[in-house]
Amino acid sequence: MTDISQNSTSSRASRRPSARTLLTLAGVLLLVAVPLIAPTMQLLINLALAKGIAVLGVTVLLRAGQVSFGHALFFGISAYVGAFLVASMPGADMMLVLACGVLGALVAGLLVGLFVVRYRGIFFGMLNLAFSMIFWSILEKFYHITGGADGIRLTRPTVLGLEMERGGFELVIFYLSIALMVGLGWFTLRWFVSPVGQVFQTIKTNETRLEYLGLSPRRVLLSGYMLSAGLCGVGGSLMAMTQGVVTPEYVWWVRSAEMVFIAVLGGAGSVRGAFIGALVYEIVRIYASAYAGDIWQLLLGGFLLVIILFAPGGIMGIADSLIHRKGTRQ
Amino acid sequence: MKNLLTSSALCMALPMAAWAADKPETLKIGMTTFLTGSASVFGVPARDAMDIFVENRNAEGGINGVPIEVTYIDEGAGAEALTSEFRRMADSGGAEVMLAAISSGNCQTLAPLAEDLKVPNLMWDCGTQRIFEEADYEYVFRPQGNATSEMLAAVAYLLKTHPDFETIAVVNQDYAWGRDSWEIFHTALEVMKPDVEVVGEFFPKFGSPDFSTEISRLQALRPDVVLSTSWGGDLDTFVQQAFQRGLMNTSTFVLPLAESSLERLGNALPAGHIIGARGDHYFLHPERREDEDFTSFMAQYKEATGGIPVYSVFHASQAFAALTAAYEKAIADNDVDWPSEEQLLAALDGLEFQGLGRKLHLREDHQGVESQLMGTSVQTGEYPFATLENIMIFDGEGLLPPVGEESTAWIRTLDAGFVDSLSVETYEN
Amino acid sequence: MTAPLMETRDLLIKFGGVTAANNVSMQIWAGQNLAIIGPNGAGKTTFLNICTGWLKPQKGKVLLEGHDITPLPPRKIVRRGVARAFQIPQLFTEHTALENLLISAAAREGLRNPLQNLHNIAQRDEMMHLLDLVHCADVADRVVVELSEGQRKLIDIAVALALKPRLLLMDEPTSGVASSQKHEVMEILVGALAEAGVTSVFVEHDMGIVARHADEVAVWNAGNVQLRGTPDEILEHPDVIRDVIGEEVA
Amino acid sequence: MNLTIFLLALFDGISYAALVFIVALGLTLIFGVMRILNIAHGSLYAIGAYATVSLTGFFLALGFAPVFAFPLMLVSAVLVGVLLGGPIEWLLLRRIYDKPEVLQLLVTFAVFMILEDVQRLVWGTQPYFQASALQALGNVTVFGVTYTVYQLILLPMVAIGLLLGLRFFLRHTVIGKLILATTEDREAAQSIGIDAERVFLFTFTVGAVLAGLGGALASPTTSILPGMGADMIVLSFAVVATAGLGQIGGAAVAALMIGLGRSFAVYVWPEVAVLVPYLIMVLVLLVRPEGLFGSPVARKI
Q: Keyword set for this entry (chain D) (predicted)?
């Protein structure tokens, strides 16, 4: 797994280019205004943000040079934990559903992680795929427990004890998604440049030296793996609460591959790229199928080919080169 | 992006006044059907038929001068895409009434959603009885029968034509419909013929392309009767592979939804198997095949699609008939140009309407009372595919549990005498 | 007499027929600066691999201050104060020279605060000083993959030193360094090690370096320690000239 | 589990294993030589099936005998290899050999997405069914159990033939040796004048032909639907990873394990049948991290 991630270590600690921060701020403000200026887009963007947070989990692993083709597993586990919780406790609060979902994802991340951190490269990717397919098969076949192929409904949880109407709830979960995007995005950015984050990224370049610094590469990878599982858990839970239904589709391998697709589309290794990639992906998916007669897969596939062949840095790579080219600084 | 903004503005303008509503430019209807995947052999004919119904009706000026416009949502895109598209159409797309859905799984998801979005929804094809038995709905109606009436008709026909079979196996699709239909059929059989032994229960994946492992198992088990409530591409594959392996000579197949596959199966469906049509739907319907509207539609459909209509087309006709009848009734009852939502809902209660089959009516729990047609396959040579003989049409009333009662609980109170208590008309072919 | 800092007893290592170490027993005393010389492929690097737990011997034990560390993985041995510099520099190729050291220091101190920037950790100045010590301060912010072989070797040693070890095992420390600077670098290195009280063992081919900077020399040949003594005794010894140096000169 | 059920499970397992092996063979060959796991392999499999059904349907309509279905299978397999396999390598993969592994994987995933839609545009969404080849060979009864000759005899024979043929080709022909050399060490091979690019093009095309052949041979046993590619490819990953990447012989053993495991599970605990292949993969990799026949790469320092 040679280097693919944007060399974030080059944007050293203090002097983060102001242009990029401004643009990010502008982007977030634009999202915040969506329910006012484009209410029809609210649901679509909410789904994209949930997916973006999950893709952030995949981006974390990309930074260690590892690609998982099964991270939809944690996305799905968190969603199903939420659905089972609300089914057994109808009045459950939204934050409780989110917390339990993420907890389920973390526990699964630990159990699966303990096994997959022994592997690297293609085997790491395929083993994650195998675990997600095992969970998918269980969801599909054990009908009486998991609702089988039709999945389970996740009736609307309460918010701080209040029984919410549909419109109100969708606003709450929209702004919760934005808050989580900003919070988790900020944390991940800081984590990447922190000692533990930097050590995590040495998995890609030299595990031997890491061992000779007195650290266990497997435990270091496991710490990053747990973070990625948790992020996927947050995404899964938000998606489930927004959609109101959880199906085995959440865990199908194509969805895991889709996450890697979005991470690279946005800009492999870039935190902002995960969200921008998810937004672009969802918009193309909805509008292509609405206006281009359901060949959205073809369009997105072609789009990814163009990105990989001509702009491997992804959308963020393009954005950065634009910023630097007309950059005002040095 | 632009047109999305304008349509949302339009939605704001639609006042939801309690009294009359002013006539909209067009009556927007959203209809979910399978346009992709193995079930498309089922969903596409229904869409083609609906286009014909709408075209004919608009030619006569639509409803009180308002033309009808139907937009289709593909159920094959998966539950997620379906729910977001349904929500978008009902919410901002300006649809006044939704027709959802074919798959029982999707019905279970979209019915509560319609209630949530406060949009009238006609469950035009899905059969699972749970929806109205587990909760009561204000906005959701079903202009057709349900699994209970269909399975009881199949059991009744089976017991009348094969009173002394001993073993049975089931191969149903692994989702809501497959599981619910087997539970009802099985409960009815236990009550009406307790000595029957169930030798095998298989639930292959919905949309599974290959049934060879299940067929091998059936070859070993050699059951007298094989039940399969699968439909569309799955049923075609299952029957064709079973026919190849000679399974259709050793077991009698009970296929309550096979009417929809007759034409596609061609000679792969030999004589002597029990065929159902989820209602009194058959392109050679003994009581309706001479009626003028029936024959003119058959010709129009054949010219448009080149094939014969299957029961999803009949269900589409019933949904369309219910829709138009409801609007006409609401307009007449309230003497308005265009009914408000409340007035439309009131009209739908206890509505009487007629599609391509017999007359139907909606009970207070919004469940349609639909007659059930069963027959036995025969290769007369008149058509390049099997047709039906020894046709029995069971009246719908007797096949449904009293309003408010749960199906399997009610069935457990029945006994062998139930079969003879049903009012039925028999036809030679 | 206190126990030796590190000791091996009857080490036996076989690789597909080749005996890399044949019942080797060897002592490394605290504070000394031992050089290991011997023909190529004699098993010198394998010896370092065994001492640091990278390879497990078929027979025999490795002791650190009398404690048996044979079964331990390298990371546990490193935690007990043993560090290593490699023949092929093992660095984090996507990080800068300074970051390589900061990561090493952070690993030593324990990675606590996930929100603090790596560049702001307390040991930053100490690491800049260490970089300066190995003449690489000017390339602190350059990504190591862009540096010369010699610079990478020195940073590799600095990364090991950053762990503040009690024992430093080095594999040909000055190979790749310009010959004019070899002695100067060795001078500073040995000085720093002595100042920090670090025992060092280094595999070396350059007899000039061995003569000037090692206080004891062990001759490794055919999987065993043939001879051991002060540089003067060893470098004039006829067998050494024939087997080790002779081979060099010809 | 009386004798008949045991035999039926055995026959199901063998016929399924043969099919999965043929598809996995192409996948593992491509990975062995080019270190690329071709996700688009599933689409090539599906298009092989669609092409066979269309060709067979066309020729049968003209009155040709059903036995013509067999040569048509080879024709469609070669068509898939040449019309799709070649261009994919030549136009796309060739430009990214220097790029990181994840981007190579994603290029094949992008091609997979494109081809899934192309299938739908060309062949629509309704299921196709063309079993004349299977019917032409009729059934056979072994110990009282009737099974189709096509699935019980033809498929395993083709699978074994391909295994031995490919092994012979790689070990005893000039091109085969070139491929093995490039697999061993691409730089070394190039340094002694082997044109790695031609070797890659040839290997990828052969791999695509094998995928197409897998689809062609599968077409009579199943109805051809959108999505069959996605189901088969994830199963082939399990076979290839269990065997050890690039292990051709290993793929045969892994395919047999997964085929039999799945078919016996149907008789013991049907719900788990779908789960078994991935369970086997995880258990094997737990014991042997490089796969059954993979060799661990020692890390030199």
A: Amino-acid transport, Cell membrane, Membrane, Transmembrane, Transmembrane helix, Transport
